[in-house]
Amino acid sequence: MDHHSTSKTPVTLLGLGDMGTALARAYLAAGHPLTVWNRTPGKAEALVREGARTADTAAGAVSVATGPVLLCLLDDASVDEVLAGAELNGKDLVNLTTGTPARARERARRSGERGARLLDGGIMAVPPMIGRPETGGYVFYSGDRELFERHREMLEVPAGAMFVGGDPGHAALYDVALLSAMTGMFAGIAHAFALVNEEKDLDRPRFARLLTDWLGAMAGSGLGMAAQLESGDYTEGVVSNLAMMTAGNRTLLDTAADQSVDPRLLTPYMELMRQRVAQGHGDEGLAGTVGLLGTG
Ligand code: FVH
Questions:
Q1: CB-ligand 1 contact for 72 (6 Å cutoff)
Q2: Do the beta carbons of residue 96 and residue 90 sit within 8 Å?
Q3: What residue's CA is closest to ligand 1, atom 44?
Q4: Which structural domains are found in the chain, ordered by start?
């Protein structure tokens, strides 16, 4: 690729882990001039053969950047470390590293003080979904709206782009909220497999398909919970009430004991359900457990 023969926005990318490399390949495939940097230099070699330029240092990559600088690093600490040594004045930064909302807000403030603009992103995709729109992967963005609109076409190259507000912390908050829900789901899947795994003649693939279908059918209950949280009426549209579910939890725990499975992944949430019923809300759905989690 001749870097001067395209009208596509030049992209600088810091970080060539699994996700960074997938992003790099998507930009190269779409014909964007691409400069990459990675702490461990060897990871850039294949991309250079595929048309990318490489920089010796992160500060060097940022200093010659004429377009947006994307960061896809391990965590907040690595982003702050990499940005600390760079001259940011006049630069457009797009952070795609998973981090906390508080650190995103602080980074946006500090970037502004250093003359840069920052858009924060949270990637809702795994590397094989990058550059493949049919997989439905997307990235939450928040912070500088003008920056988002200006670079929207470039941002949409690896995955869909969804702007969720001017608060620079909101992309991270949405990202972490969805990842947290996913973690709870993984815990449920692990418990389910623990219950059945020692059974003779278990057809694991068949069980996995049943589990996947059931979780898919139940995931929509989040919509009902949102409606209840909006209205404040936690009995609205309830199809499975807390009193019934809490009684059913006894069966879940007894079965775990019979199968010699530690129920510790389930019991914290069961305790919240029990508390809400004890407060006299057995006719509600699960929305009342949300308020019990607040620590502020
Ligand atoms: N991979 C995934 O499934 C998920 C999908 C959703 C989004 N996440 C987040 O994306 C960020 C990057 O993830 P990744 O998969 O690329 O992660 P790694 O393959 O572990 O690569 C990490 C890169 O970060 C570099 N790095 C780490 N520490 C430093 C540092 N102190 N200074 C500079 N660079 C640093 C590391 O460099 P090296 O080890 O190769 O030298 C890699 O380039 C992440 O936030 C996910 O949560 C991915």
A1: yes
A2: no
A3: 74
A4: 5-166 (3.40.50.720), 174-292 (1.10.1040.10)
